[in-house]
Design goal:
Blueprint (H helix, E strand, L loop, with lengths): L3 E2 L13 E4 L4 E4 H4 L4 E6 L5 H18 L3 E7 L11 H11 L5 E4 L4 H5 L4 E2 L1 E6 L4 E5 L15 H11 L12 E4 L10
Parallel strand pairs: 4-5, 5-6
Antiparallel strand pairs: 1-10, 2-3, 2-6, 4-8, 7-10, 8-9
C-alpha cells in the first residue's frame, strides 16, 4: 500500500468540465448536470483502495448530509481496469448499491483525461468547488489513514464545507490528501 499525496490544484481553479459514464444510472452525465446549487464536491476514489475503504462511512455521511444543503458529491474512478478489474464499471455500480447510492454520480474516467485535468494523484483525492465551480478546498478528509490511530471524523472537509455554506473563505493552509496512487494505464501492475 503506497502512500501518494495529492497534487493540490490551485485554489480558484474552475472545475474542468467532463461528461462520463455514470455507473449508477448507466448513462453519460456531465459536470453541469450533477453540480450542486451551493457547491460541488468532486472525489477521485476507487473500489479497492484501503484508504477509501477506511473512510467510506464518513464519505457517505458527508455526501448525504451536505446534499440536503445544496452541495452535490460526485465520485470518479480513473483506475486502469485491465490491471485492476475490481475497479471496473460493473463493480463500481455494485459498490454504490452496497453504499446506498450516496453520491450524485459515480463516474468512470476510462481515458483518465479527467483525472489528469484535475491533477488527481491518489485515492481519495478531494476537491470542493463553490456555486460558480471555483476550487475553494482541495485536500484531505481528515488526519485518519489505515496506518494510524486517528479517528475518522471528516473534520477538515466538514470545516471547508461549513465555511462555503456560511459564505466564508477557507484558509490557504490546506493539507494534501494521501492515499493509493491512481492506477495509470501503461504502468506495470502491482497487485
Amino acid at each position: 500500500m503506497s502512500a501518494t499525496p495529492s497534487n493540490m490544484m490551485p485554489l480558484g481553479t474552475i472545475a474542468p468540465d467532463f461528461t462520463l459514464l455514470d455507473t449508477i444510472s448507466g448513462k453519460d452525465k456531465s459536470l453541469a448536470s450533477l453540480k450542486g446549487e451551493q457547491g460541488t464536491l468532486v472525489m477521485f476514489i476507487c473500489n479497492h483502495c484501503p484508504y477509501v475503504i477506511h473512510i467510506k462511512d464518513q464519505l457517505i455521511a458527508i455526501a448525504n448530509q451536505y446534499a440536503q444543503q445544496g452541495i452535490n458529491t460526485i465520485a470518479l474512478s480513473a483506475n486502469d481496469i485491465e490491471n485492476y478489474p475490481q475497479d471496473a464499471p460493473d463493480k463500481m455500480q455494485a459498490m454504490m448499491l452496497e453504499w446506498g447510492n450516496p453520491f450524485a454520480g459515480y463516474l468512470y474516467d476510462e481515458t483518465q483525461a479527467v483525472a489528469k485535468a484535475y491533477l488527481a494523484a491518489c485515492t481519495p483525492d478531494i476537491y470542493l468547488f463553490d456555486a460558480d465551480l471555483a476550487c475553494v478546498y482541495r485536500g484531505r478528509l481528515d488526519g485518519a489513514t489505515p496506518k494510524n490511530e486517528v479517528d475518522v471524523s471528516g473534520e477538515d472537509l466538514r470545516h471547508a464545507l461549513d465555511l462555503l455554506l456560511a459564505g466564508k473563505v477557507s484558509s490557504q493552509e490546506q493539507i494534501p490528501s494521501i492515499g493509493c496512487n491512481i492506477k495509470w494505464k501503461g504502468r506495470t501492475s502491482v497487485r
